[in-house]
Structures are given as C-alpha cells and as structure tokens.
Amino acid sequence: MSEKLVIFDTTLRDGEQAPGFSMNVDEKVRLALQMEKLGVDVIEAGFPISSVGDFEAVKKVAESVKEIGVAGLCRANKKDIEDGWEALQSAPRARIHTFIATSDIHMKHKLKKDKEEVLTIAEDSVKFARNLCEDVEFSAEDATRTDLDFLCRVVETVINAGAKTVNIPDTVGYTAPIEFEQIISTIMNKVPNVDKANISVHCHNDLGLAVANSLAAIKAGARQVECTINGIGERAGNASLEEVVMSLYVRKDLFDYVNCTVNTSELYRASRLLTSITGVEVQPNKAIVGKNAFAHEAGIHQDGVLKERTTYEIMTPESVGFPSNKLVLGKHSGRHAFVQRLQDLGFELQSYDLEKAFAKFKELADKKKEVYDEDLETIIENQISEAKEFYSLEYLNIVSGNTSIPTSTVQIVDEKGNITTDASTGDGPVDASFKAIERITGIPGRLKKYRINAVTAGKDAQGEVVVSVDFEKSGNEITGRGYSTDVVEASAKAYLNALNRYLLRKNSKIKKTSEGI
Ligand SMILES: CC(=O)SCCNC(=O)CCNC(=O)[C@H](O)C(C)(C)COP(=O)(O)OP(=O)(O)OC[C@H]1O[C@@H](n2cnc3c(N)ncnc32)[C@H](O)[C@@H]1OP(=O)(O)O
Ligand SMILES: CC(C)C(=O)C(=O)O
C-alpha cells in the first residue's frame, strides 16, 4: 500500500522572497488558482505579518481557492500567529505554519537565545496556534545544521504540543542526499511520537541538490515535500516542484511506496503562468519546463526519436502539458530530421535533390543558430524552380526628417532586365519605400509583421529586417528577409524577398501535398 505524499507549494511565499519575484494580490490569486488546478495539496500563500499587501494576498487566496489547504508563515510569537490566523480564516483548510531556528549558529547569533529558551518558544507557539487552528505546521529552521539530538527533542516537543506536520528544512542548502537520508531516518527511528505527525522537508538549492535531497528524504520516511514552481526561492531557490513530481512519476518503480496526486499535465501551464507574472524566464535547459526540455538538435538523437521516441525521451511532452517535442534544425542535424521537416512542410522527397538541398542547409546552419521553416522552403523552392529573382532592388533614395513628408524613390530591375523607377510618400521612409515598390510591380501587399534584428555588433551593425506580407489578399503571410547596414534598404530588400517568394510559389510547379500558397 502506498502512502500519501503531500505536495506543499511555497511559490507564493519562499518563491517570492527572491529578488525580482514579488507578486501583488491579484497575481498571487491567479497563480493560486492554477496551483489548485495542478492539484497540489497545500499552498503557502505568504507571510501575513510581513506587509499589509501580503496579509491581503493571503486573505484573498484563502477566499478564492475551493478545496486545497492554504498556509501562512508566522514567526514563533503570538502577534505573528494571530495575524496569520486572521488572514487565513476563510480558507477551506487553513494551516498556520510557525517556525524558529534550532541550529547553534542561528540561536547564538540571530536569536541570541539558548537551546532551552528556543525549545520553550517552539512549544508555546505551537500550543498557541493549535488553540486557533486545527492544522499547525512547525519548522525547525536550519535543521540540517542543528545538533541532531536537539533536533529530535524539538520534533518530539512540538508534536506533543499539537503540530500535525513537522518540517525539517535544509535552509541554506547545505546537506547532501546521503546525509539527509540519515537525518530523516534518525528522526523517524528516535522520536517516540513521530507517528502522530507528518515529517516534511524543505530543501534549498545552494549546491544544486534540493531535488535529490528531497527524494532522499522521501526514501527515509518524509511524507511532505515543500517546493516551488520553476524552483524559485531564496538565493539559488527551492526544490523545483515539477522536478520532484516528475521524478516520482517517471521513476514509479523506485517510489511505488508513495502516492502523489499532482495532475502533471498542468505543470507546464503553471510554469508559464509564473514566468508571465514575474517576467523571469527559466533557462532553456531547465528540466521539465525549459524551452529545450523536449527539443532535439543532434542528428543521431533526431534519427532515434523519429524511429522510436523512447530512445531519447524518458517522458512525453504531453505528460507535463508541454506543446510537443521539437526537432530543432541546426548544424548538428542529420538527413532524417531534415527530410521529416520537409515532409511536414509538404515537400515530397522525389521533388528535390536531397543531397544538394542538405548541403545548402548545412551551409546555412553554419551561419545561423537555427534554421527556420521559411529558410528550408527557400532552399527547396530555389533549387527546384531554379528561378531568378523576379524583382531586385537597384537604387533607393529617401527624403525624411521631422519637417518633410517622407518620400522614397525606388528603382527596380525585373527578371527580363527592365528597369523601372517610381516614387511614393508614406507614413515613414519604410512605408514610402513599400508603396513605391507596390506602384512599380502593381502587386498590392499588406504588411502583417515587421521586425529588425542587429546581426552584427557595433555602430556599423548589419541589420536584418524580417517582414510578413499578405500579397493580393491571398490570406497567406509570406516571410521575407533583407540585410543591410541601412535599415530602410534592408526593409525594401526584405519586402522584395517576400514578393519574390510569393511569385515563386504562385508560378511554381512544385508539388506540395498541402495546398495554399
Ligand atoms: C528561512 C526563511 O525563509 S524564514 C522567512 C524569511 N522571510 C522573510 O523574512 C520575509 C518577511 N519578513 C519581513 O517582512 C520582516 O522581516 C518581518 C516583518 C517579519 C520582521 O521585520 P522586523 O520586525 O523589522 O525585524 P527584522 O526582520 O529586522 O528582524 C527579525 C527579527 O525577528 C526575530 N526572528 C527571526 N526569526 C524568528 C522566529 N522564527 N521566531 C521569532 N522571532 C524571530 C529576529 O531575531 C529579529 O528579532 P530582533 O528584532 O529582536 O533582533
Ligand atoms: C521557514 C522555513 C520553512 C524556511 O523557509 C527555510 O528554512 O528555508
């Protein structure tokens, strides 16, 4: 029979303690509702005494969620606990979480108290909290640097005082799996009343061991894990919720004695919501939720995944709600992935010369970080039709300034070598240039997207302009790129590049399995 493992999410409390992660009341409520959807058992909504805003946030979260537990952190004193209880009262399941440090370093330098004084404060605080609230958690801050005999006395005392959960935090991320497993085992074996409470752990990531330590503690008998979405939290953060949960899920064979009821398919959404609220992205290689967590660029891996996904994937992207696995085409890719992507884009293998196209692709991949679908389309379309450019830019002159109407004079050469010159005014020099091109070619286009990137550094940076244009109201957005140290010239080139690609497709004999230009 497996035992329930309580997932205690502290994204809204320890998570927001880190610089850059503060959340306001509405943001906390939004995230709390997502955490409820995710199916965590308890959320720690804040530290009510810390500010009026945080009191309000804990109160609003308590009022907003339907069934999960809501905790508020309180120091071990009456004022904090009363305040916390006031904020929590309307929660469907309120939990007062009170704490005090038990390590010699903290007691001597920070609290300026001895062991007996701290023990009494811990006991009194838990008793006081239990008079207000059924569900009380106690944390022995800096437990992993606490004298183990004293830690066992503290745990026994607070359980006798009524704590239902006793948390053993690795406050400064100091312990290691082999040691933490022993600490928890000792508590499980030596504390006589330990069966009357749930032992919890709360691991920080200063040595990058927070998840490993949490898993070691589960092995030793801990049945609550405190963690945060994206692993955010004080300093290097807390154990990442998604990593703990997916470790238990993927390695059910190792953890079949615990039952975790988190709905894993909501993990990615929770991570994205946190990112959009705080504006802090996770690193691309972040386990479970990073942009590259399910991406493969290496040719041998891509080939393996195409033949059998499990060769290089230990979980499906769907299992964590990740959009899909992704074969990124770059300089490490091989022919299997290249052909697969072209097939997905609708190009039949027999319609192009694979070796030539692949060589062109590798050449391009050496210059660019990632090769996009439009680049592949251009490679194939150019190869098959061997078409020359329909239009190319010969000359461009703009008049612009804060007192003149922007005007652009453009000269274009068509595929037969005819040169045409025309001019137009516009809302700006770029708009005027596009209008002049439209006058010359007679092909109307609606600009849908426009982006400038600097592709080299310094004052003489090469600018890359990327445009998406819908020509002749076809309903298709055609992408074009242009490069120049002059952004207006790069824009005109990008527009013409899109136009040439449009005409190429329109006139192309390329057989595409999916229709549409
Ligand atoms: C490991 C952790 O993550 S613990 C949680 C850490 N989170 C935070 O601190 C965020 C919220 N904190 C705050 O807003 C403020 O620190 C407050 C409102 C709690 C307190 O502010 P202040 O009253 O100005 O005190 P300040 O923060 O400067 O110092 C902390 C005081 O609490 C005492 N204290 C620290 N922990 C505890 C505890 N668990 N129980 C009782 N007292 C404690 C300290 O000894 C110090 O007391 P002193 O003033 O007698 O020296
Ligand atoms: C208050 C406790 C749980 C804490 O955040 C820590 O020790 O890191």
TrEMBL record:
Give the superkingdom in one word.
Bacteria
Which cofactors does it use? Mn(2+)
Q: Where does Mn(2+) bind?
A: 14, 202, 204, 238
Q: Which reaction does it catalyse?
A: 3-methyl-2-oxobutanoate + acetyl-CoA + H2O = (2S)-2-isopropylmalate + CoA + H(+)
EC number(s) recorded for this UniProt protein: 2.3.3.13
| CDD domains to which the protein is assigned, alphabetical | DRE_TIM_IPMS
The record, for Pfam families, names: HCS_D2, HMGL-like, LeuA_dimer
- Top-tier EC class: transferase
Q: GO terms for biological process?
A: L-leucine biosynthetic process
Extract the PROSITE patterns matched here.
Answer: AIPM_HOMOCIT_SYNTH_1, AIPM_HOMOCIT_SYNTH_2, PYR_CT
Cytoplasm recorded as keyword: yes
Checking PANTHER family in the record gives: 2-ISOPROPYLMALATE SYNTHASE 1, CHLOROPLASTIC-RELATED, HOMOCITRATE SYNTHASE-RELATED
Q: According to its UniProt record, which protein family does this protein belong to? A: Belongs to the alpha-IPM synthase/homocitrate synthase family. LeuA type 1 subfamily.
Subunit structure, as described in the record = Homodimer.
By what name is this protein known?
2-isopropylmalate synthase
Q: Source species, please?
A: Flexistipes sinusarabici (strain ATCC 49648 / DSM 4947 / MAS 10)
